[in-house]
C-alpha cells in the first residue's frame, strides 16, 4: 500500500471563507475560495529516472486527446512511454495504440476497478508497478505520461507517483468551471483549458475562464494556464514545450 505519498506537502487547497457563497460572476471579483497552499513548489526534476507527468481532469475533458497530441510532438524527441488508467476497460490505451501515436510496447493500461482518484492518489501501487515495468523493459526513458481515469474537480495525483501534474478541464461545462476551484484547478503545475472550439456553442467566455483560473492559481508564473483545441491540435505545441521545459537537461535522443 502506498498511502499519501505527497512529498511536496498537502495538495488540497483550503477554503478561504468557509461561510461565503461562491461568486455568481467571477472569482476575480470576489477572491478565490481555493488558494494554492504556500510552500508547495514543484520539486527538482529527477535525474536518475524518467520525469513522470500526470494528466488528470474530469471525464471527457480531453486527457487522452492531450496525451495523443503530446506523443505526436514528443515521440521523436524524447524517450517516451505512457500509462493510462480506466476503471473497467483499457479503452484509452487501445485508442492510443490504434491512433499509432506511439509504439504499442510503450503504452500500458491500468484497470483501476475503483474510483480513478484512488489509484492515482491513495493507493498508487498499480500505477507505480506499471511505470516501473515500463522502465525495466524499455531501459532508460526521459518521460512517462500517466493519464488518470476521468474523475472530478477534486482528483489529483500523489507526488509519490508523479513529478508534475497537468489538469485538463474543458469549456463545454461552461465558463464557470475554473472559479469552482478545487486542487486540480488551483494547484496543478499546468492547467489546460481544452475544447476552445466549443466556446461559441456553449456561450463560454474564454477571457472569464482565463481571469478566474489565474485568480484561483494565485497568478503564479510557475503554474501557467494554456488553452487548447485538440480537435485541431491548436495549443498542443505549447503544452509540449512546457513538458520539455520540466525535463532536467536537454533530452537524450531516442
Ligand atoms: N470539440 C472538441 N472535442 C474534443 C477536443 N478534445 C477532445 N475532444 C473530444 O472529446 C471527447 C473526449 O476526449 P478524450 O480525450 O477521450 O477525453 P478524456 O478526458 O480522456 O476522457 P476520459 O478518459 O473518458 O475521462 C472525444 O470524443 C474527443 O474527440 C477539443 O478540443 N474539441
Ligand atoms: Mg481518457
Automatic annotation (TrEMBL):
Residues where GTP binds: 57-64
Annotated region (Disordered), positions in chain: 1-55
Record Pfam families: cobW
Superkingdom of the source species: Bacteria
Domain CobW/HypB/UreG nucleotide-binding span(s) in chain numbering: 53-219
Localization per record: Cytoplasm
Biased composition (Pro residues): 38-47
Signal peptide: none
GO terms, molecular function: GTP binding; GTPase activity; nickel cation binding
GO cellular component annotations of the record: cytoplasm
UniProt-listed SUPFAM superfamilies: P-loop containing nucleoside triphosphate hydrolases
GO biological process, one term: urea catabolic process
Keyword entries, A-Z: Chaperone, Cytoplasm, GTP-binding, Nickel insertion, Nucleotide-binding
Database matches in HAMAP family: UreG
Family, per entry: Belongs to the SIMIBI class G3E GTPase family. UreG subfamily.
Job of this protein: Facilitates the functional incorporation of the urease nickel metallocenter. This process requires GTP hydrolysis, probably effectuated by UreG.
Subunit structure, as described in the record: Homodimer. UreD, UreF and UreG form a complex that acts as a GTP-hydrolysis-dependent molecular chaperone, activating the urease apoprotein by helping to assemble the nickel containing metallocenter of UreC. The UreE protein probably delivers the nickel.
Protein name (record): Urease accessory protein UreG
Species for this entry: Parafrankia irregularis
Amino acid at each position: 500500500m502506498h498511502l499519501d505519498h505527497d512529498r511536496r506537502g498537502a495538495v488540497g487547497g483550503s477554503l478561504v471563507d468557509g461561510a461565503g457563497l461562491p461568486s455568481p460572476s467571477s472569482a476575480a471579483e470576489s477572491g478565490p475560495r481555493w488558494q494554492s497552499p504556500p510552500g508547495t513548489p514543484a520539486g527538482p526534476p529527477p535525474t536518475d529516472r524518467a520525469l513522470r507527468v500526470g494528466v488528470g481532469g474530469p471525464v471527457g475533458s480531453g486527457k487522452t486527446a492531450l496525451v495523443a497530441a503530446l506523443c505526436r510532438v514528443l515521440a521523436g524527441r524524447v524517450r517516451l512511454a505512457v500509462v493510462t488508467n480506466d476503471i473497467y476497460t483499457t479503452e484509452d490505451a487501445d485508442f492510443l495504440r490504434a491512433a499509432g501515436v506511439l509504439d504499442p510496447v510503450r503504452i500500458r493500461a491500468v484497470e483501476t476497478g475503483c474510483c480513478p482518484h484512488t489509484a492515482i492518489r491513495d493507493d498508487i501501487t498499480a500505477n507505480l508497478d506499471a511505470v516501473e515495468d515500463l522502465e525495466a523493459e524499455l531501459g532508460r526513458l526521459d518521460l512517462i505520461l500517466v493519464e488518470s481515469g476521468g474523475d472530478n474537480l477534486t482528483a489529483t495525483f500523489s507526488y509519490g507517483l508523479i513529478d508534475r501534474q497537468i489538469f485538463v478541464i474543458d469549456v463545454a461545462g461552461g465558463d464557470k468551471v475554473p472559479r469552482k476551484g478545487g486542487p486540480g484547478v488551483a494547484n496543478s503545475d499546468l492547467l489546460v483549458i481544452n475544447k476552445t472550439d466549443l466556446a461559441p456553442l456553449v456561450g463560454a467566455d474564454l477571457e472569464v475562464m482565463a481571469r478566474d483560473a489565474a485568480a484561483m492559481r494565485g497568478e503564479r508564473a510557475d503554474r501557467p494556464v494554456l488553452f487548447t483545441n485538440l480537435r485541431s491540435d491548436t495549443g498542443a505545441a505549447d503544452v509540449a514545450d512546457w513538458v520539455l521545459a520540466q525535463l532536467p537537461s536537454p533530452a537524450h535522443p531516442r
